[in-house]
Design brief:
The protein is α/β, with parallel strands linked by helices. The strands form three sheets. The protein has a four-stranded mixed beta sheet with strand order 1-2-4-3. Strands 5-6-8-7 form a four-stranded mixed beta sheet, covered by helices on one side. It is built from six helices and eleven strands.
Amino acid sequence: MRVALLRRSAPEPTHVTVIHAGICYPVTVRRRAAARRITLRVSSATGEIVLTLPERTDLAAAQRFADSHGAWIAARVAKLPERVAFVPGAMVPLRGVPHRILHWSITSGATIATTGPDGTPVIAVSCGLPHVARRVRDFLEAEARRDLTAAVARHAGALGRTPKRLTVRDTRSRWGSCSAAGHLNFSWRLIMAPPTVLDYLAAHEVAHLAEMNHSDRFWRVVETLSPGYDEPEAWLKRHGTELHRYG
């Protein structure tokens, strides 16, 4: 008896490559049922190049589309802000003030914000060199959680509301959010912005505990909690993307 073998089609690649002026650009491929045409974008936050296409679009056609936009991709990538790794000597903003990462000691100890031998602000890290980046990231996240917890408690108290939970993550699409269940979520990168920006975001999300919308009533609540919020909101629109280049 002969048994027919079923052929399994190879999974579609998740990436394609665009070559322009001798440089290879990896492009992420995403299919979306709601997409009506092929689109191409370069994320200003992560630098990721994304090619989105409808479910039935042929991948070869999508590749040709991406190839035809090689110069556009190169131009957009060239304009991206330079990435800043968490390494000794790097300058990282903390509450809006530039701090230099100082590898204080190879002996494990607490990471602290202090002043260096020359009197300038530093983030002093005591650990083995391979762990510096993680220690700086953990320190910034902990500082963000501390400041956000205090700001949320203050604004929630003024509003007479109690959030169910506060989470700090490395969010990319939104700086903060509030769920219908009263769970607040924030980006730890807010700790790098001036304190008024973090405080405004806390007030913004706490206001959603009273108004789960962006109606005029909602903005009146925000104004009550954070008078003059236009300025920190404008700062975030102008400079927020730059915070994603650190780490």
